[in-house]
Amino acid sequence: MSASTDKTPSAAPEHDGDAVKPSNFLRAIIERDLEQGFQPARHFAGSPGDAAHHAAGPLDPARIRTRFPPEPNGYLHIGHAKSICLNFGLARDYGGICHLRFDDTNPEKEEQEYVDAIKEMVAWLGWSWNTPDAGTGSDTVSHLFYASNYFDFMYRAAEYLVTQDLAYVDEQTAEEMRVNRGDFRTPGTNSPFRSRSPQENLTRLREMRDGKHPDGSMVLRAKIDMASPNINMRDPTLYRVRRATHHNTGDQWCIYPMYTFAHPIEDALECITHSFCTLEFEDQRPFYDWLVEHLAAGGLLARPLPHQYEFGRLNLSYVVTSKRKLRQLVEEKHVSGWDDPRMPTLVGMRRRGYTPESIRAMVESTGASKTNSWIEYSVLDGYLRADLEGKAARAMAVVDPVKLKLQNYAEVFGSLEHREACSAPAHPHLPELGQRAFSLGPELWIEREDFMETPPKGYHRLYPGNKVRLKYGYVIECVGAEKNEQGEVTAVLAKLVPDTKSGTPGADAVKVKGVITWVGVHDGIPAELRLYDRLFTEAQPDSGDRNFLDFINPQSKRVVQGFVEPSLAGAQPDQKFQFERHGYFVADRKDHQSHAPVFNKITGLKDSFGK
Ligand code: ATP
Ligand code: MG
After folding, report:
1. Is 341 near ligand 1, meaning CB less than 6 Å away?
2. Ligand 1, from 10, 71, 83, 370: best to mutate by most atoms within 8 Å of Cβ?
3. Where along the sequence does the record place the motif called 'HIGH' region (predicted)?
4. Is residue 9's pLDDT more than 80?
5. Which listed ligand is nearest to 71 at the C-alpha?
């Protein structure tokens, strides 16, 4: 049975967490395979290698082997999280092992910087490519591999195909090759170089390898069928001449394998059982099978052979997830870098404050299906709130501050110097997190929007003559405001109502309809607050022929100076809080310092998307 016969509906995003088990047709495939004892005598020599290498090794203790195979040419994004969680998650669930393999066969675009960042992010998401050593039980067996370490084998495989008359060197120009490939309606035309003898081709291939021919002058192609209805089977290119320094192999090679040739070989050398990839590779599967089958028949690759299965990509609304487009955003400085908190890269999302738990929960809720899915950003935010609600400490912060002056402060407390201690639980349901302490003084910071001189109907906050409660403090009555020459409010004036402190018997004596948050002028900490919104104004900014750059949201970042309560003095970079009434914030992992705090807004308390 091939994966393409599986019909599973597109995974519906679920808002209520794990109430419904997401459908995942890949599980069905693995369970069927395991039930049928799909690979009874599968040997694994403990490291990647050819048929002889594995034949000499023991039976594979892993029931299945999967891999996450990123190309180290950029930073991972939310779409990759799907592939990571599927591959590592399925291996974990079925007694298998997942390899982290850098698909670094393309010399031009790959860098160590990306290798390091990818490793960091896979680990951040909570996965490990190390497994316990059978002998010691400690986490010491690494399953981290580099495809470039297989270049020797790949070249050997290429020579083998040539000797079997299954590959040839083609000297047509790129344009001739394109024209002769035909299209969906027209079969291709055989290259005039297709009928060369294996011996001639071998000589040519060796010359290519030895640097005797300029870049682009010739390629090695598989000899399959130029009339195949599947264009990928019309003699696909296997090797090209390219003088470029590779981050791992340096200048050792001037020919490099194509991805479609390299990838199946990588899987087979690592004894991957289930090679999961995204749907766009479906048409490559016949070549994948052709290649590993021929190389196994020739005794080069170990049997049983890997199989490819395709699943639908994960797309998130209001972002783009293509490395090329993300790179453009960075290089053209639309964002501050790969880790800009608005970027859907994992480094960006981490900096924004998304937790690995929330990303995993969102990805898992989408299961796996045979169609590409679009997930609303608000679904991810739902998982984030569900995660942070139960663990983020609370705090008060004022985002758009205006001063509130308590005119009768000295009368009530005997002196302007008096500080009236107030407290609140760090978390309403986690008493073990303790209490937050802050205090009331004669001047407080409140939100500018909490005062209106002439309020509309239904406004219950401060306006002359109205009473509200200062959260965790006293009831106050508004008496007016001070203004500057332009008529702007520079301070709100109010009077404390004595004996109404929260938590005291008098607290309920005066009924109010509004409660406002505040921070003391004397003990509030000035903080930079970075208020983020979605990066694009359109849900699918890169759909159709549109230029995604036309839909960048000019209001996606707003930086304001606010004040936060004194309990945040010890906030550590990456620490997350719920700022009461405002939403979830995180101390910026790059810029936050105790003497100059910086908090990023992660998301609001409720889903306000599109409202
Ligand atoms: P991009 O198209 O963004 O450049 P890529 O597919 O070229 O991504 P790779 O490094 O080749 O990036 O991807 C590693 C793995 O992640 C591949 O198996 C790929 O299929 C998978 N992957 C990439 N994007 C998504 C996505 N949106 N949803 C699910 N899997 C994805
Ligand atoms: Mg790719």
Report:
1. no
2. 83
3. 70-80
4. no
5. 1
Q: Is 277 in the pocket of ligand 1 (CB under 6 A)?
A: yes
| Distance between Cα 321 and ligand 1 center (Å) | 9
Is 77 annotated among the ligand-binding residues?
A: yes
What's the 330 CA to ligand 2 centre distance in angstroms? 19
The C-alpha angle 374, 376, 377, rounded to 5 degrees, equals: 125
For a pLDDT cut of 70, what percent of the chain falls above it? 95
**Residue nearest (by alpha carbon) to ligand 1 atom 4:** 323
Q: Round to whole Å and give the CA distance between 196 and 465.
A: 97
Q: Which residue has the higher pLDDT, 478 or 371?
A: 478
Say if ligand 1 is within 6 A of residue 101 CB: no
For residue range 486-534, list pLDDT tens digits in order: 999 999 999 999 999 999 998 988 999 999 999 999 999 999 999 999 9
Any idea what DSSP says for residue 283? G
Question: All domains of the chain, ordered by start, with CATH?
Answer: 24-316 (3.40.50.620), 402-516 (2.40.240.10)
State whether residue 529 is helix, strand or coil. Answer: strand
Q: Which ligand is nearest to the CA of 374?
A: 1
User: Token digits for 473?
Assistant: 């403090």
Q: Is residue 131 helix, strand or coil?
A: strand
Q: What is the pLDDT of residue 3?
A: 35
Give me the active site residues, please: 71, 313, 323
Q: How far is the CA of 255 from the centre of ligand 1 (A)?
A: 25
Sheet with 65-68, strands from edge to edge, namely 65-68, 97-102, 144-146
List the residue whose alpha carbon is closest to atom 10 of ligand 1.
70
What is the CA 177 to chain-centroid distance, rounded?
A: 38
pTM, 2 dp = 0.92
Q: How many CB atoms lie within 10 A of CB 131?
A: 16
Q: What is the pLDDT of residues 373-426, one digit of tens each?
A: 889 989 999 999 999 999 999 999 999 999 999 999 999 999 999 999 999 999
Q: Is the separation of the CB atoms in 413 and 402 below 8 Å?
A: no
The answer to whether 267 and 306 have CB atoms below 8 angstroms apart is yes
Q: What mean pLDDT is predicted for residues 237-257?
A: 96
User: Does the bond joining 356 to the residue before it have cis omega, within 30 degrees of 0?
Assistant: no
Calpha distance 28→31 (Å, rounded): 5
Confidence class of residue 140 from pLDDT cuts 50, 70 and 90? confident
Q: What is the predicted pLDDT for the residue at 611? A: 39
pLDDT at 335: 97
pLDDT at residue 6 in the model: 34
Q: Which range is least confidently modeled, 9-18, 166-175, 180-189, 258-267?
A: 9-18
CA of 124 from ligand 1 middle (Å) equals 18
Q: Is residue 89 pLDDT above 90, yes or no?
A: yes
CA–CA separation, 482 and 405 (whole Å): 10
Q: What is the mean pLDDT of residues 40-58?
A: 94
At position 235, the amino acid (one-letter code) is: D
State which ligand 1 atom lies nearest to the alpha carbon of 84. Answer: 16
Which residues, at least 6 apart from 423, have a Cβ–Cβ distance to it below 8 Å? 435, 436, 437, 438, 472
Distance 33 CA to ligand 2 centre (A): 28
Q: Is the CB of 372 under 6 A from ligand 1?
A: no
Q: What is the mean pLDDT of the chain?
A: 93
